[in-house]
Write a structure and sequence with these properties.
mainly alpha; 0% strand
Length: 279
């Protein structure tokens, strides 16, 4: 092999290593940022369950809470940048494939595209919040959900689109919960680097946290379907109203306490993923 070929090979390997390091850093930063949001939302939901109904238990409320902390502006920008990293990681999975035997399959790439789009929206909302002087954040998730549903219902076949979207969210919630209970996340973790005790703790956070997260998604989807069937945007609910629904069940606020604790555990699980996930 001549020297020019060796040089090209060396440059290719260097670019691949550099790209891998950047993607890995972006992924781990994004997972940690996701963990912060779920920790804050879960903590706010616990406060709602124990009677502090003035709290807004959703991403906007979490950002408001973070903004009030020392160096809040710095923390908000760090959170937004971390979520940009999450979006870029998902984009890289769509383009280059993800880890695992079927990481380059069409199904995994399409799933990565959907996750990329989701995190672009989330990252933009956080960065917009960080940049705004009054920290308005674009309003509560409940109002945003109702407004989006109302606009969707006004377009041709809007009722069907809202219903289909609601069913998709229900299915996604069920999929998230089932995968968590079956511990499918084991395929994504470097289990060999964990002690037996650490694996047990990660399983508690992964199973309980994932199940709680899936349940919240599924319930929000049910309300979207109801809004479509009744042709009433007011029936659509964001994260805050969805969580408050759990307190209105016969089990009272204790069901909300359990779900909120589950969201906190999912936040902790996200930190574990940031530490031990294959990227």
């Amino acid at each position: 092999m001549d020297t020019s070929a060796l040089a090209r090979t060396g440059r290719f390997r260097a670019r691949r290593v550099a790209r891998g390091s950047v993607v890995e850093g972006a992924a781990r930063a994004g997972l940690a940022a996701r963990g912060v949001i779920y920790l804050l939302v879960g903590a706010l939901a616990l406060q709602v369950a124990f009677g502090d109904t003035s709290r807004q238990a959703d991403r906007g409320g979490a950002l408001e809470e973070l903004a009030q902390k020392p160096f809040g502006a710095v923390l908000l920008w760090a959170l937004g940048i971390g979520l940009v990293g999450m979006a870029l990681w998902r984009l890289s999975e769509a383009v280059f494939g993800s880890v695992g035997q079927d990481g380059r399959s069409a199904r995994k790439r399409l799933l990565a595209v959907a996750r990329f789009a989701f995190y672009v929206v989330v990252a933009c909302s956080v960065l917009s919040f960080a940049a705004s002087r009054n920290h308005g954040g674009g309003g509560s998730s409940d109002r945003q959900s109702r407004d989006a549903t109302a606009r969707a219902l006004e377009i041709p076949a809007g009722q069907w689109l809202v219903g289909a979207a609601g069913i998709a969210v229900v299915v996604a919630g069920g999929w998230i919960a089932v995968r968590a209970v079956l511990r499918k996340y084991h395929d994504e973790l470097r289990l060999g680097r964990m002690s037996r005790r650490t694996r047990q703790l990660v399983d508690v956070t992964g199973v309980v946290g994932g199940a709680a997260r899936g349940l919240v998604f599924a319930v929000a989807g049910v309300f979207a379907v109801r809004a479509a069937v009744a042709y009433e945007p007011e029936q659509a609910k964001g994260l805050d109203d969805t969580l408050r629904i759990f307190a209105d069940t016969p089990l009272g606020p204790w069901l909300l306490v359990c779900v909120a604790a589950g969201l906190v555990l999912f936040g902790v699980f996200s930190f574990a993923m940031a530490r031990w996930r294959h990227v």
